[in-house]
Amino acid sequence: MAAMKKQNRTGRPQGLPSKTQILEFIQSSDRPAGKREIAKAFGIKGQEKIALKKRLKDMAEEGLIDGRKTAYHRMGGVPKVTVLKVVEIEDGEPIAVPENWDPDSKDKPPRLVVKESKKVAALKRGDRFLARTEERGKGWIAHPMKKLPARTEGLMGVVEFDGGGKPWLAPVDKRVRNSSPIGDLGEANEGDLVLAEPMGKSPRAKVKVVEVIGDPLAPKSFSLIAIAKHGIPHIFPQEALEEAQRVAELPLSDEKREDLRDVPIIAIDPADARDHDDAIWAEPDGNGGFNAIVAIADVSFYVRPGGALDKEARKRGNSVYFPDRVVPMLPEILSADVCSLVEHEDRAAMACHLHISPEGKVTKWRFTRAIVRLAANIAYEDAQKAIDDGSADDVLKNLWGAWKLLFKARQARDPLDLELPERQVRLNDEGQIEEIAVRERLDAHRVVEDFMIAANVAAAKALEEKAAPVVYRVHETPSREKLMAFKEYLASQGRPFAMGQVITPGIFNRMLKDISDPAEKALIMEAVLRSQTQAYYGPANAGHFGLALGSYAHFTSPIRRYADLLVHRALVDSYKLEQPKPKGKIPEGSGLSDRDRTALNQITDAISQTERRAMEAERDTIDRYVAAWLSGRVGETFDTRITGVQGFGFFATIENLGGDGLVPVSTLGREYFRYDERAQELTGEDSGKTYAVGDRLKLKLAEANPLTGALKFEVPDSDGSGIEKRGFRPPPKKKHFQKGKGAPRQSHAKGKRGRPGNIRHQGRGKKR
C-alpha cells in the first residue's frame, strides 16, 4: 500500500498541493491567500516553493486564478483567451467548454455560450476554436477568434500490440491511415474498441484511452462505433424520461378534437417499422377528384416547449436509423407507443384534410386536431401484392386512385428523377448479417411519398396564408460555380450545356432520358448529383428545386424530426388548436414558444447539422456492414462501376450491393497515368487506357476492413503490390550500430501478429 502523505494538525495533506487543493484552500480561506499563505498551509519549504510558484503561474495562465501575487482569487476556470470545444447546440447557439480542463478538478467544466461572428460561424458539435471569453452575469460568453483543426479525428480504434509488446491504436476511421502509439492504456485490453485522446499537440503524439467500448466485431457493434464517433446523444437524461412518463399518461380527450375514429385510415410502412408517424385515407368526391386525409401523430400535444423532453429532442434533432437499432429523438414510451399510430388504438393526430382535383392538384386544405383509430397497419410489400393480385379492398383501391391523380401532377411538375439505389442490411436474431441488397422500389412507396409531399406543401402554404413562421425544407437551385463545373464536364464528354437557360429539374431529366447506354447514363447521373446543392432547414423560403416546388415544409414525421414538430406548433397557433391545459407538472402550451420564434434561424441551422450528422453516421455504419459481409470474399472478382476519380486512384462500387473501394493508381502497373480533373478520368500515357466516372469493369477485392468500412480493389491482372494496408505503422528510424555493440531490435511494423492494421479479429483479447 502506498504511503499516505503526512498531514499537519489541521488535517491538510503536506507537500506540493494539486490545483484542486489550491482552489479549495483559496475558496475556504478566511484571509487573503497568496503564495506565502499557501506554502505555509501545506508545509512547503525549499525547492518545493519553486514548484509551487510554477504551478500558480500555470493556474493563472489557465484562468483558474488571477495573476496577483499578494492574494490569489479563484477565476471560475476560464482564461481570457483559450481553446474551447463545442459540446452541444442549445436553442441554435453553440455551447462550448474549455478543452484543457484540469482532470483533478472536482468542479464541472464551465459552459460558455458562443456568440458566432461572420469570421467564425456555423460551429457544430466537436468543433475546436480559439476564443476570447468574458464573464457576463452568472455565466460566461465566448467570442470566437479562429477555428482550429480537429484534434480528436480518428481517435477511435482497436488496441493492438506490436512485436515488442508496445500498444498501438489501429484507427476505425477509413480517412485515418496510420496507427497511433498508446501512452496510457487505462483499463483496455488487446482487441478492445476504445475512444482515445491525444496526450500532446504533435501529430505523432501518444494517445490516452479514455473509454473502453468493447469487442469491435461483436454483433451490433458497428452502430456503436458510429454513435461514439459522431457524438450522437443516445442516453436520455432522467428528467426527460420522467417527463415522458408523465405526458404519456395524459388523458386523450375529444374536447376540441375532430373525431375520425370511424374513418378507415391506414398506415403503410416498412414491415419492421417501430414508429408510425403517418396514415392516409381517400375517397372519390363524385366529380373525378378525391377527398383525402393525411393523419400525422400529434407529437406537439405531448412534447411541450421549454420542457426537458423538448430540450433533448432539439439537441438530437432527429432519430438515427441503423440496421440493428434506432437512436430515437423521443423516448420509446412516446416514439414506439403513445405517439405511434397503431391499428385499433385511439391516438392523438394532426389531420391534414386535402381536396385533390381531377388534374391531381391540391386545391383545398385545412388542419384539425383529431382522434383516430387506424383500421390497419400494412407493410409496403403486402399493400402492393393486394393491388397486383386484385385482392385489395376499397380503402387501398381509393388510395391508389387518388395517387394516380397526384402522380399525374408530379409528372407535370417534372421534379428531379435520379435512380439512386438504397442499400438494405438484413440481420438475423443474433445480429449477424443475413443479406445485403438494394431495396426494391414499389408503387406502394410512391403512393405514400406523394401523399406526404402533398401534405407538406399544404402545411407550408397554410402557414404562409396565416403569415406564421415556417420551417421550410429548402433545396436551392444549383450554384453558378457548380453548373460551370457540370458544363465543363459535359464538354469533356462531347455534350453541350447552355448556361443562359433557366435551370429546372426537367433539363436534367431530359438529358438523362436521351441517353440509352447504361454506362454513359450512370456517368452523367453522377455528374448531375454532384451539381446539386445540399438541402437544409430555414425560416426563409428559397423553394425546393429537386421537387420543383415553390413552398415546401416537413410536416409528416414529428416523431423522428424536430423540424416537423416546429411546423406542428406553428399550425396549432395559426388554426387555434390549443388544447385545455393538462393537470400536473406538464409545461403549458403546445404552440410555438417565444424562443422558437426569436431563435428560428439558429434552431434550423442546428437541426440541419444534426441531420447531416445522422446521414454520415448511417452511411458509415452501412459501409462497415458491407465490408463485414465481403470480408470472407477477398480475392473474388466483382462487377463494379467507377464512382469517383482522383490523381491517386479511382473509387468503384460493387453493382447491386454498394460499398465504395479504392483502386490506388500505384496498382495499375508501371505506366504513368495522367489525371484530368475536368473529365474525371485517368489516362495511361503509353496505352491510352482510361478509367472514368461511370465506367463499368471487373475488379478483384483486395481488402475488406469491417472496422473502417474500407474496401480496396485491384484490376484482375494486378499483383496488388501497391496496396497499402490501413493502420500501417511506420518502422522506427534506423540507428547506426558499431560492430560488436549489439543489433537493432525487430521493427514494430511486423511481428508475431503479421502486418498491423490488417485486422482479422478472432475474439476479444486473443492473439491474432
TrEMBL record:
Protein's recorded name: Ribonuclease R
UniProtKB keywords: Cytoplasm, Exonuclease, Hydrolase, Nuclease, RNA-binding
Entries under CDD domains matching the protein: S1_RNase_R
Statement: the UniProt record of this protein carries the keyword Cell wall biogenesis/degradation: no
Localization per Swiss-Prot or TrEMBL: Cytoplasm
Region (Disordered): 1-20, 712-768
SUPFAM superfamilies: Nucleic acid-binding proteins
Domain of life the protein comes from: Bacteria
Function as written in the Swiss-Prot or TrEMBL entry: 3'-5' exoribonuclease that releases 5'-nucleoside monophosphates and is involved in maturation of structured RNAs.
PROSITE patterns with a match to the protein in the record: RIBONUCLEASE_II (PS01175), S1 (PS50126)
Catalytic reaction list: Exonucleolytic cleavage in the 3'- to 5'-direction to yield nucleoside 5'-phosphates
Hydrolase is among the record's keywords: yes
Residue intervals of the S1 motif domain: 635-716
Species of origin: Qipengyuania xiapuensis
Family from the record: Belongs to the RNR ribonuclease family. RNase R subfamily.
PANTHER family, per the entry: DIS3-LIKE EXONUCLEASE 2 (PTHR23355:SF9), RIBONUCLEASE (PTHR23355)
EC numbers for this chain: 3.1.13.1
